[in-house]
Amino acid sequence: MHLCSTAQTKLGFLRRLVVAVMLVLALLSGVCAQQTVTSGILRGRIEDAGGGGVGGASLTATNLETNQKQSATTDSEGRYRFP
Predict the structure, then answer these.
(1) Integer Cα distance of 46 and 10 in angstroms
(2) Backbone φ and ψ of 34, nearest 5°
């Protein structure tokens, strides 16, 4: 069975369109992945050997990839929070 030239042209166009859309989607997925932001909150409690909270303790959290440091101090019950 032979397709007429108009049908062949339409089929060729659709194939190229599908390939182009897939290529654009693949490129966009890489761009979106690079823009992902990771963040979070780190919190906890410092306790002494008897289980009591240690107030006024100084802590430092370091991002190992960027070497960025953040400091925190525990409250009177030993709780701390890094934003």
Answers:
(1) 70
(2) -75, -20
Q: What is the pLDDT of residue 32?
A: 58
Q: Residue 31's Cα: distance from chain center in Å?
A: 13
Burial of 74 (0-12, 13-18, 19+ CB in 10 A): buried
| Domain parsing of the chain, residue ranges | 1-36, 40-83
Provide φ and ψ at 80, rounded to 5°.
-135, 160
pLDDT band for position 56 (cuts 50, 70, 90): very high
Beta-carbon contacts of 70 under 8 Å, excluding residues fewer than 6 positions away, are: 60, 61, 82, 83
